[in-house]
Specification:
Layout: H1 2-10, E1 15-16, E2 19-20, H2 30-51, E3 58-59, E4 63-64, H3 65-70, E5 77-81, E6 87-88, H4 89-94, E7 102-105, H5 114-122, E8 126-129, H6 137-152
Parallel strand pairs: 1-3, 2-4, 5-7, 5-8, 6-8
Helix pairs in contact: 1-2, 1-6
Length: about 160
Amino acid sequence: MDYLIQKATELGIKRIVPFNSSRSIPLLEEPRQSERRHRWEKIAIAASKQCGRKLLPQIDPPGDYPQILEAVPEDSLRLILWERGGERLKGILKRSNKEKEIFFIVGPEGGLSQKEVEAATEAHFIPVTLGERTLRAETASLCLLSILQYEWGDVG
């Protein structure tokens, strides 16, 4: 997560929302969550300074998966990366409004469960594939951010 926050900050992400899902490892207790979030904020500050970014990304406290689905801005393009299938990103971006905010979910190391993906689609998320390879969570996140940066410009 440290590496992801550093690189996502450099790529211009606006908000990072950590969450606990059924396959998250480890599930941290509240005091450790606060310590971890403080560490992430320091990493974002250092990354912002390094890349010349003026605005820091918002790093939310870790939440539970159902809370995350409910907290998504109403008019955002909602994507969920899923290694078992989904639409190609290229087609989704072609038919989407570039002015929309994008909110995307990337699962933990063990992936998201079928039930979690179904809950996301019920919340109007579009399952997206990045190809045939199963990518690590941080690789998939940074891959998607890089594509969005290329296609739409700064995502923050």
